[in-house]
């Protein structure tokens, strides 16, 4: 960010005219361009402008006290993603999170399906548990249902 034109992305748009018409032209027709709408109003900007994206900071010292403070400030749904340990699922329930997502995109981490049943047994009555990793076809859904999942 910001977006930079290149031969590759120009060709990609040219080779997908339906996408270009359905998405990009729609933005132009409304007089708007894609923007960072999930940012606070003062920090929103076009993806095409300089300084469009705020730098992403890595906060290595965040902990459960920070989640508790966030819960005190935020009355909407609070869902914590990336939970892979039973202890963390229990702590999420204790800080009044509304739900957790058992997921990981790290090759070296445990597979979510391997810990899902244990997490649901430990915290599933206090907190909503969702699984979203590793689902690529129907048989994966059946495996999740067999391990734990309730159809929604």
Structure, described:
The mean pLDDT is 81. A 3-stranded parallel beta sheet has the order 1-2-3. Helix 4 (86-94) links the parallel strand 1 and strand 2. Helices cover 41% and strands 7% of the residues. It is mainly α. The relative contact order is 0.09. The radius of gyration is 20 Å and the shape is extended. It has 2 domains: 1-56, no CATH class; 64-147, no CATH class. Helix 4 (86-94) packs across helix 5 (112-123).
- Given as residue ranges, the uncertain stretches (5+ residues, pLDDT < 50) are none
Q: Gap between N and C termini, in Å?
A: 37 Å
β-strand amount? 5-15%
The whole-angstrom Rg is 20 Å
What global shape is seen? extended
- What fraction, in percent, of the residue positions are helical? 40-55%
Number of alpha- plus pi-helical segments: 6
Main sheet attributes: strand count, strand direction, barrel closure: 3 strands, parallel
Q: Report the order of strands and helices.
A: HHHEHEHEH
Kindly state the mean pLDDT as a whole number? 81
When the domains are counted, the total is 2
Strand order of the largest sheet: 1-2-3
Query: Total strand count, please?
Result: 3
The helix/strand class is mainly alpha
Task: Summarize the topology.
Layout: H1 7-14, H2 17-29, H3 64-73, E1 79-81, H4 86-94, E2 99-102, H5 112-123, E3 128-131, H6 138-147
Parallel strand pairs: 1-2, 2-3
Helix pairs in contact: 4-5
